[in-house]
Amino acid sequence: MSTTLNDRGQSSPAVLSLSGKKVVVVGGKTGIGLGIARAAYAAGASVTVASRRITSVEERPDLVNYEQMILDVRDEGAVREAFDTIGSFDHLAVTAGPEFGSWGNFMDGDMRGVRSYLEGKFFGSWACARYAAPHLRQGGSITLLTGGLAVRPKIGFSAVLAAFSAVESLSGSLALELAPTRVNTIRPGFVDTELWKNFSAEEREALKEKVRNSFPARHAGTGDDIGHAALFLMTNPYVTGTVIEVSGGENLVPSVF
Ligand SMILES: NC(=O)c1ccc[n+]([C@@H]2O[C@H](COP(=O)([O-])OP(=O)(O)OC[C@H]3O[C@@H](n4cnc5c(N)ncnc54)[C@H](OP(=O)(O)O)[C@@H]3O)[C@@H](O)[C@H]2O)c1
Question: pTM (2 decimals)?
């Protein structure tokens, strides 16, 4: 969407429509990425979701509205090939990220886990932006994704914090280098997704209850909440180079984790 002046010299009102647009969500088959895919589809876009596997619609009927593509963000050649195959499109969101847990505290172990995390989160986001950018149409945008750890350090999560901070810095730099393509980052707080699958059902429910009781929004975030923010970033022509925190006010209260 771009702002146009009508015959009275007024700008047109804000419309969060992606009608006629094509959106690619890398990591879009689950969790936060799926929330973004759902929001884009509901706003009228055709949506491609890319990740390391194709899932049958028999197994996941909710994926019926999306074109699926195989893509491992750690493989630069595969990323370039995937975007060459996709061709022209309008908006990119990259939510793919490695699972937590392949590293320990800073002084534990060696650097393999850290390198592997950065490979998936930071270099993966970099590669997607790098090879998608030439295919983005006028008015297009890139949305990257981090998390509250970027600014709220926690013992044992140095690799995640470093990767998230690097992604946020990258998005500011790309907003300049790729202009007028707009580049932004969403920094979510707790979101109830498969990222928490190693928790038992009871532990996960208890965590959500803590979130509902302590976060100022009194709500445990969902992928759709992040999808709502992504739709804003894709459709607002005046937002670029920014990081928006979508965390129910997690930044204002002591950690519940
Ligand atoms: N949930 C939260 O509370 C929360 C909070 C803050 C930040 N975050 C961050 O948000 C991001 C998304 O997390 P989520 O909660 O949506 O988790 P999720 O449901 O586990 O989603 C991760 C997605 O990334 C894809 N993926 C993983 N590695 C990939 C690779 N190498 N190449 C391509 N796709 C890959 C996975 O699909 P395949 O397995 O099919 O490849 C999956 O669809 C992560 O970076 C996470 O750290 C999450």
Answer: 0.95
